[in-house]
Design brief:
homodimer, 237 residues, alpha+beta, 11 helices, 22% strand, DNA-binding
DNA sequence: GCTTGTCTGTGCGTTGACGCACATACGGGA
DNA sequence: TCCCGTATGTGCGTCAACGCACAGACAAGC
């Protein structure tokens, strides 16, 4: 099931595409292509991370799980980034869970190899740090958005964040799961999604959602979305 | 007004205290001791950062300011850390404002020197990264707390975070300012603070608050506080 | 076909926080 | 001393989100 990754596959991940031919050629033998099913947990909170993941078509959600079982998303990673920054930041773990939000493929690399490559310095090192800063912005904006904005706005933001990281306009996810990610009630998502359907921005049938009018969503979202988008573009151009 | 920092002053900042004698001796000539008044803005959102700050007695709050003027805190930095991580992360700026929450002293270093020292690698490099990871945990937990917990709990968390970074039990800050930090109404802070007063945990008179019973506060706070505390201890021991 | 489990819609009452409007209280300066 | 600006307390009505309960609606399997 595990196969060495090809150059073409690696280039689907924006970070790997940006590090340059020479470094990519060195990394390639250590990159393994795997398929991730919906719901798979890549890391559990506090668990030692064995691999770093560079998604291509998969989307990974970073969640914090409360003691009472409720949860909230702090960030989302797709083909624009990587999962497992704690490996090179030096902490080895984080108090979060990383779970597959959209089934798809990812490249993975052994943690030790990742550390070696990182400590070489150079473009890869810098790119990892710039990506980390972009992720910090995303997490920060999640904090702000959680504090100041409505469920409607946050659903828009979540949909756009997902859409940015997907090859198609379809999102396969039940309202219950979205509610868990956003840390709100399932009924709250039902209401917000209905409003978006009435506006003609999305269609939604039993866990199968389609983005119909992206511009419409962008007109309803709070400024948080654009702030993060702009920072990603600036830092990872 | 600006004076070279002494070794003793530098050791009041936990990061500088942890990097070891040799590296500290090299940094010391580049560290300048300055006093920061309450409310001073160290960086404006998107502004190029000229200095990195290592607080000793000052506390700095990292805020995001919405277009409509409302604001929310995403993190807080005291003598446990540093302000200006974007300088070595490679982004040079962040979309946040850094403002003095508690008047006091800080050491500051020129951004170019900071970059040089960081790229040397070694213990300082690693410590900066580990601190960054700790800060990420703090921001993440702010996001979670904003989503799932009451104003009462968040005020407790905020008080404990401040208390951890202060040499005394006094916090000089009006309810209005605290409300701006937490992104809630001033009246909400009034109510929450009154409850804490009635419980005997704090006293509060016109911008002059005293922590009377820290254990009481800890018994009222949500788990978010301890998660962050534990991560700081683990990463920066 | 029928059953069963899952997903979505809807209708309550409740609650926490909001926005607004004042009343009160303190403290420094004229 | 008085005044005035600032800080805090309080009382509304409003609203968004919550918790709970249950009713359809669809899909898969027997």
């Amino acid at each position: 099931m595990a196969a060495n990754a090809t150059r073409k596959e690696a280039l689907q991940n924006h970070l790997l595409a940006a590090i340059g031919d020479e470094e990519l050629a060195r990394l390639l033998p250590n990159l393994e292509l795997v398929s991730l099913p919906l719901g798979q947990v890549l890391y559990e909170s506090g668990e030692k991370m064995d691999y770093v993941y560079f998604p291509t078509t998969a989307i990974i959600s970073l969640l914090y799980i409360m003691e009472n079982g409720s949860s909230a998303e702090i960030g989302v990673v797709g083909n624009d980034g990587m999962v497992g920054i704690a490996i090179f930041m030096g902490g080895d773990t984080t108090p979060n869970r990383a779970v597959v939000q959209n089934a798809g493929k990812t490249l993975k690399m052994n943690a030790a190899m990742m550390k070696d490559e990182f400590t070489r310095g150079g473009r890869f090192h810098n790119l990892c740090l710039r990506y980390t800063q972009a992720l910090i912005t995303q997490i920060s904006q999640t904090a702000v958005c959680n504090r100041l904005h409505s469920v409607d706005q946050q659903l828009c933001r979540w949909l756009l964040l997902s859409h940015d990281r997907l090859p198609s306009d379809r999102i396969l996810m039940t309202q219950d799961l979205i509610a868990n990610m956003l840390g709100v009630r399932r009924e709250g998502i039902t209401h917000a999604a209905k409003r978006l359907q009435k506006a003609g921005y999305i269609s939604y049938v039993r866990g199968d959602m389609t983005i119909l009018d992206r511009l419409g969503l962008e007109s309803s979202v709070c400024e948080c979305y654009q702030v993060v988008r702009t920072e990603y573009d600036r830092l990872l151009a």
